[in-house]
Amino acid sequence: MSVPMPTSRAVCSLVVPNLIAASAATAIEQLAGGFGSIAGVPGARTIAASVLEREAQASTFLGHLTALPHARVGGLPHLVVAFGRSVRPIPWTRDGSPVQLIFLGVVPADQPRHYLEFMRSLAKALTDPRLTAALLTAPDEPAIRAWLREHLQLQ
Fold first, then answer.
1. What is the DSSP code (8-state) at residue 110?
2. How far, in Å, CA of 91 to CA of 150, rounded?
3. 67-90: pLDDT as tens digits
4. Domain limits of the chain?
5. Most CB within 10 Å of its CB: which of 62, 120, 136, 148?
6. DSSP state letter for 95
């Protein structure tokens, strides 16, 4: 089952198959490092601070062991995502809802619709227990990238 992606380009800048983090903040800070070499994207610390500020407003926990933290960035030509799969569940919400699949998005400030479409595609894919299990058990980075290309059209 493949989920169509919006017409805009979306890129996966980093895949961390064995993320080790004890908190949402630590996971976000680690994944923000994947944006350092992308033109138009501010540095990792700026990204992490923006994402953590957004996360403080409302949790990006989606259920199905998934969170979608994000921040808007001006001048960015397309959505960029860093993906991390946590070795152990990370308590993400105030009540400790667990997360193992983290999609950290840097969203073009002038194109929020594309990010909303990405969120919808992701939520649809991860409501299928077989697809979630396949992502949770993918053996390595190439297998995870293949899943992201097939089901979310991430380059």
1. T
2. 28
3. 999 988 877 778 889 999 999 999
4. 10-152
5. 148
6. T
* Under 8 Å between Cβ of 11 and 155: yes
- Taking the chain (155 residues) in consecutive chunks of 10 residues, what is each chunk's mean pLDDT? 49 91 95 75 82 92 91 81 95 94 89 81 89 96 95 85
Number of Cβ within 10 Å of residue 88's Cβ equals: 10
Token readout for 98 is 């667990």
Total residues found in the chain within this entry: 155
Domain spanning 10-152 has what CATH number? Answer: 3.40.930.10
- Helix then strand then coil, in percent of the chain rounded to 5, is 40, 30, 30
CA distance 44 to 50: 10
pTM score, two decimals? 0.88
Please say whether the beta carbons of 98 and 30 come within 8 A: no
DSSP strands (E only) in 9-122 = 10-19, 61-63, 66-67, 70-73, 79-91, 98-108
How confident is the model over 1-13, as pLDDT tens digits?
A: 444 434 457 888 8
Dump the DSSP string for 17-57.
Answer: EEE--SSHHHHHHHHHGGGTTSTTPPPHHHHHHHHHHHHHH
